[in-house]
What does this fold into?
Amino acid sequence: MEISLTVNGVLKTVDIADENTPLLWVLRDTLDLKGTKFGCGKAACGACTLHVDGEAVRSCSYPVKFAEGKKVTTIEGLGDRENPHPVQQAWIEEIVPQCGYCQPGFMMATAALLNKVPKPTDEDIDKNIINICRCGTYYRMRKAIHKAADLQAEKLTNDSKEA
Amino acid sequence: MASKRSDSKKVSRRKFLVKGGLGTIGVVAIGAYLFRSPIRRQILGVVNSLEAPYLDNIDQPMVWFEVTSDNNILLHSPKMEMGQGTFTGIAQMAAEELSVSMDQIQVVHAASSTGNVDSFATGGSTSISGLWKPLRELSAMLRVMLLKEAALKMNVGVDQLSVEDGIISGNGKTLTYAQAAEGVENWEVPDVPVLKDAKDYKYIGQPVARVDLDAKVYGDPIFGMDAEMPDMLYGAVVRPSKIGSIFVSADTSAAENMPGVIKIIVEDDFVGVVANSMIEAERAKDAINVTWDSYDNLNTEEIVKMMTVGNGKSSVIQKNGDSFGNQDEVVTLEFRSPIGAHAQIEPNGVVAFVDGDTATIKISTQVVGLTRKEVAKRLDLDVEKVNVIPTYLGGGFGRRLHTPHAVQAAIMSKAVGKPVKYFFSRKEEFQHDMFRPPTHHVVKGKLNDQGYLDGLEHQFVSGDVATDSALIPNALTNFLGADVGAIRGGFIQYTAIPNFKAECWHVALPFATSWWRSLGLLANTFAMESFMDEMALKANKNAVDFRLHQIADEPIDIRLKNVIKAAAEKANYSEEVKDGRAMGFAASIDANTPCAQVAEVSIVDSEIVVHKVTIAMDPGLAVNPDQIRAQCEGCIIMGMSAVLYEQMFVEDGELTPTIYGPYQMALMKNAPKEIDVVLLQGKDTPGAVGEPPLGPIGAAIANAVRRLTGERLTELPLKISKKA
It folds into this structure.
């Protein structure tokens, strides 16, 4: 069946045999967006976290049919080298990644958190950032999340000045 | 600048392969480099403390560098990047001696077709220390070669040339490295030049950002799971869920006509399916009915019973003085650690294409050479015709020292004549891990009249770590008498004690156990340093002073004392419980890197909370202090996860749990809010970094709990049995 969804701002129509195929595999194998990672297939680790209509979703357990007509954002659409998202900028400044495999999921979860809670406390972070990192980068990630909040606030101020 | 060294013996053993301009790209390849013969040691104490050399493959030319037409350097790394920061460290080392900027160096994984394959592995915290000398020497030689060519082209004497950022200048003229390399066919191979003096380092010692930072922040497809090949199909492999299952037969009839199925392969005890998509392959796999002849339905209690000191065979790995005198005064404590899973987030995966008499394998692995050999052997191919193309690893931790899945994918590819991608499900990852073996420790000590130890003994038992690994010949293990992985951290480090003994027992378990980051260190240090703390309490002495007093005066001992003092001072170590928080102290030596930690702990609702960890470590010369800090932070959190939460069970013959969550691991909320890292430099070469900081964390936490609650926790994972 055909499913239409907006991926990183571009309308895509995909022909999928099984509408229950997880969104993750449609993105990775059909649309060749490999930034969203497979970790467990059971929504237990968060490596596959992306945004559907701005909400953090674990895409390994999200049937593609539910994405019909929705806006999907992956790490490739969060920002790029020319125009990094504040979360990516903070991740670079704090040199967070080690192996790096879980990091897109964490960055997407963090970006979604900052949209809801622009200035998260440590408790907000503990409660909302519940992905798994085996290298143990949590210590730097926490610093990066606070920094990203600051960068995002600056960006909003600058944007409103320009407007 | 290129004065010769007297080290002619080594120079004469080098061979060089040099290729000239490939189209517009000037290619310089430097060949085989033999710098040390494999070290054979008969004394386990040396095996435990040595920093393993880089073991190269002397039979083949090796491509280390390419000078590209845009005047950058491509560095083909024989060591894999799995998060430990090796690529960044070696880029710094090469940039230093090549006199190029960090931006001009791009590090890539060497494919086995370049010849630059580490014949051992990426592991054991050896990459930077092993490449320290050879890589800087090779880089310096390449610099001299380029300068000589430039001198000819510029018509300027070599001694009048200088180079900065890959631009050669002299006598008012300039030439880039790329221009110098272009068109050269017969390179003059120099002797090894004198290397830069440490005071002149520009990049070594600097906290430069990781070279793979952007790729990892913008989601570039760099991992094994992201690898593809044209016309690729997907494979899945049927595996038994019970320990020790023996294949009897497979009924594939239901799966054969399922959508997307291309072929079902039953070959000896291998049952695989190839389909058009991963999901179709998985579904067909589930429809194959395999009959297994099952092993006894073991449970955890039976494994624990097997893994008890006194079972199996033993080897005394360290002994000094006599056994204990009056047995009445001997204190004995027993400790246990559970089965641990690697639980790396990127599953094991591979894309293989067997095309006639050649094979191409894309894989995230710690063992490029071994993978190549195993594929060649099973598919009866010439090893030179198997090209293993390594990718970034989504975590290694020792798990990727095993790659039988490369062989399985190759079998499937051969059967269908197309590339096949195949990876483990998470359940397969947990059930078919090469686990960290459980351990049991019996530690005995006796105090003298002054309240210091008169005798200390560590008896411990482990399953296989190095034993039965394709990486270490069993003959060597048998010769040494003990498993060289299990003994890590098992030695007595307080050798000023007059009488001491360490004895390692070995029991082979009915399921595979193997290398897990830091090997025996995590459990051995937990046992030994918990015991030391208990003895300090019994002697009514400060835990730090108690340790310092009993360390000898060899160079490594001095370095151990220094990290102990530095950690205690930085943390303001105190044995008072303040505001419901207590500190715990522990120290260890691993691979010649001493490390001490202070954990600041409280108990909230019967849960252990680690607020702050202070670590002092002496890894020798710090090539990249920021990434050493990152390794310290990561090891502390991974170690904390292992000692507080992680545990595999055996239930009715199955390893369980099979998913994150039930296999509990540290999350953001559990990680310490403060980690304070102090780096000391007690020697002028780089040492081990990626594993040593895992040592002390278990005992540091348990010792803090002891001071909070009075309870001595002796089993991992640590659980409070009474409220503080």
Q: What stands out?
A: Chain B touches chain A through 61 residues (CB under 8 Å).
